[in-house]
Amino acid sequence: MSDLEEIRRKRMQELQQQAANSENQEQARQEMEMQKKQVLMQILTPEARSRLANLRLTKPEFVDQIEVQLIQLAQMGRVQSKIDDNQLKELLKKVSGPKREINITRR
Question: Is residue 40 part of a domain?
Fold first, then answer.
């Protein structure tokens, strides 16, 4: 019985450590998100932030990539003033590349 109790005790410790690690990771992730939002609020106009939020609904990975690029530009000092909606549109066009054109012909 003592072996079984020892195994249970060790397993409980492992589970508690895993729970603590996942809580720490979640807290760190939330902190990073807050910092990212702060930087984006400083470099984007409300219209540009709104456009990114709308785009996030359809292409979340693409928006994450754009946000990282914007933050890097700000950190390098290449953003002189707030990026407005038109500037963001141009940046999105450059990053997304050419659109594929689909033609459907009926016979």
Answer: yes
